Amino acid sequence: MSEQALLVMDVQRMIVDRYPDPAYLPRLRKAIDTARANGVRVIYVTVGFRPGAPEISPRNKLFGRLAGAPASAAAAQANDIHPDVAPGPGDIVVTKRRVSGFAGSDLDMVLRANDIDHLVLTGIATSGVVLSTLRQAADLDFTLTVLSDGCLDNDPEVHRVLTEKVFPMQAEVTTVADWVAAR
Questions:
Q1: Which regions of the chain does DSSP assign to beta strands (E)?
Q2: Where would I find the Isochorismatase-like domain in this sequence (predicted)?
Q3: Which of 53, 110, 138, 155 could pair with 49 in a Cys bridge, judged by C-beta atoms 3.0 to 4.6 Å apart?
């Protein structure tokens, strides 16, 4: 029997705010509630750094501007998981240090310790955390499902190409409604 986990990735307030789609969080909430009701482990993957971001090289094009930046209470709060999809009791929160959910985190250890071999991917952005996590998870031999409308990207065409052409080579791609109906 395959053990599944729903990965809810990069839905921190500061990230969600950059992707205005009023239907996204309610749709994601439905997937989360369905997972919990059906015994599917819910794992949140967030991006985060220690104060001063000593894990970041200034050479890193995406995160380099944060290297050596002083921590602030406002920045920490903005980095919290959005309250509309906040973790519940029994959910796991993993902090990653780069784009992939596996990079600099203990995600693989958590998955293996819980005998999870099937990942259901959601998150922001499709071309960022979802793509990077999918590729690494496939290389680690996980069975993969992507909830296409459980992902967002700032470029709709990139989202379409990934969910319709790239992801199906390594994952089943479905919608939140179809995944919920199959539970």
A1: 4-9, 41-47, 92-96, 118-124, 143-152, 172-174
A2: 5-178
A3: 53
Alpha helix ranges (H) inside 38-104: 73-78
The answer to whether the CB of 89 falls within 8 A of the CB of 95 is no
The residue length of the chain stands at: 183
Is pTM, for the whole model, over 0.90? yes
Cβ atoms of residues 107 and 47 within 8 Å:
no
In the chain, which residues have pLDDT < 70? 1, 64-78
CA distances to 52, 74, 87, 98 from 46, in Å: 17, 17, 12, 10
The residue extents of the domains of the chain are: 4-181
The C-alpha atoms of residue 26 and residue 39 are separated, in whole angstroms, by: 20
Distance CA 122, CA 149 (A): 8
